[in-house]
Specification:
Blueprint lengths: L1 H9 L1 H29 L8 H19 L2 E2 L8 E2 L3 H11 L1 H19 L6 H23 L3 H34 L4 H11 L8 H37 L3
Antiparallel strand pairs: 1-2
Length: 244
């Protein structure tokens, strides 16, 4: 805990920017959620006691799933797969896009208290924004018309958005940031990719993103979406009735 607060103090400006992004995405999600309610002709409170409790529960489950990471055969070891977006996607379908953003934030916060940060919050920001790239499009589309077709469409659009955004984010920001943070030439990081993935063009950061990062995000989004489509309908009455 002491190390976490020390890290926050050392990177106060970056942490402040992180919170600014969280607030911005929350406000966007809230505005789109209200627009969806207007289209559907309903008016629901943004938060109420049961919703807050469920947000906390789904965030805790997500944080635990985030700790269970799996190596990938097509990407370097510092990229690992987890399915922490699954409970958040279910929760965002049930309680709206704004709740989805809150769950993403609480997931990261819980992870920081459990494990701290080894990337000066850079990796944590990446996990948050890439997760939102799946959760926001999926839950916003569903918020405008709640049926199976829009849920499926939202999952497809969310998965594609996460894949494209996550890949671009790694190419433009994350990989150069890690290289600077660990005082490593970017070429050394790219070489790790070419050693494990023969499809990668040696020395090309774009190729690294396309053959190492994109498949990871596509796989994650697809698995999370398929599982959500399978379990959400049976869970929905229980979620709405507040029995779980």
């Amino acid at each position: 805990m002491k190390e976490l607060f020390t890290s926050v103090a050392e990177h106060a400006l970056y942490v402040a920017s992180f919170f600014g992004i969280i607030v911005l995405l929350f406000l966007i999600a809230l505005a789109l959620e209200k627009a969806g309610q207007k289209v559907r002709g309903v008016k629901e409170p943004v938060f109420h006691t049961r919703k807050v409790a469920m947000i906390g529960m789904f965030s805790a489950i997500s944080a635990l799933l985030m700790l269970a990471e799996f190596p990938l055969p097509f990407a370097p070891g510092f990229y690992e797969l987890d399915f922490s977006e699954l409970p958040i996607l279910v929760g965002a379908f049930a309680y709206g896009p704004a709740a989805g953003v809150m769950m993403e934030f609480l997931k990261i916060l819980l992870k920081l208290f459990i494990k701290g940060t080894s990337t000066a919050f850079v990796g944590d920001l990446a996990n948050f924004v890439v997760g939102c790239a799946l959760i926001l499009p999926a839950s916003v589309i569903y918020a405008f018309r709640k049926n199976k077709k829009t849920a499926l469409l939202g999952c497809v659009i969310g998965t594609l958005t996460m894949t494209v955004f996550g890949t671009a984010f790694n190419i433009v920001y994350l990989l150069p940031a890690f290289a600077e943070m660990y005082h490593m030439p970017l070429e050394s990081i790219l070489e790790m990719g070419s050693q494990i993935n023969p499809l990668m063009t040696e020395g090309s950061i774009i190729s690294f993103g396309v053959v190492c990062v994109a498949p990871m995000n596509l796989l994650k989004g697809t698995v999370d979406s398929v599982l959500t489509m399978l379990i959400y309908k049976p869970l929905r009455p229980l979620l709405k009735a507040g029995r779980i």
